[in-house]
Amino acid sequence: HFFNLRHLNTEEEEAASSEEDSSSFRGSGVCKWFNVRMGFGFLSMTHREGICLDSPVDVFVHQSKLHMEGFRSLKEGEAVEFTFKRSSKGLESLRVTGTGGAPCVGSEKKPKGTQKRRSKGDRCPIKIVLSSDIVRLFIYQKISFLNVTGL
Q1: How far apart are CA 38 and CA 35, in angstroms?
Q2: Is pLDDT of 6 > 60?
Q3: Which of 36, 114, 116, 127 has the maximal Cβ count within 10 Å?
Q4: pLDDT given at position 17
Q5: What is the rounded CA–CA span in Å between residue 66 and residue 93?
């Protein structure tokens, strides 16, 4: 059997097309604020379906909806285009891009306190803290023991 590969979509395209159904809308505006540590924020929508709004409307945005490489975030005031839907919580973005469908720029800020997670074998349940005086005493006692026993 032969398949027409031009009609196969990537998982990301499938997810985007299934989310962007008839109940989704197009909007544009700017990032109102975005918390890089929590991974969410709000967009300030100024245009809906190409029509200028009388006053900006807030649209929720989660980092998973941002079209960009690497660490996903938005910079406050960054111009964005997006699709969104109405949910029980309010307006929620489905896919967010920069202007003209370009990748989002993102914030220079990265979450503070991000540490590389150690493997279980590297974890020590007991922390041992030795002062330099205790270390010196231990070494002195070892040397004394070795001298007395003749080792």
Answers
A1: 5
A2: no
A3: 36
A4: 47
A5: 9
Residue 18 has pLDDT above 50, yes or no: no
Distance CA 65, CA 83 (A): 10
Question: How much is the pTM?
Answer: 0.61
The answer to whether 84 and 114 have CB atoms below 8 angstroms apart is no
Residues with Cβ within 8 Å of residue 71, at least 6 apart in sequence: 36, 106, 110
CA dihedral 44, 49, 54, 56 (to 10 degrees): -10
State yes or no: pLDDT of 144 exceeds 50.
yes
Distance CA 68, CA 104 (A): 6
Torsion on CA atoms 86, 92, 98, 101, rounded to nearest 10: -50
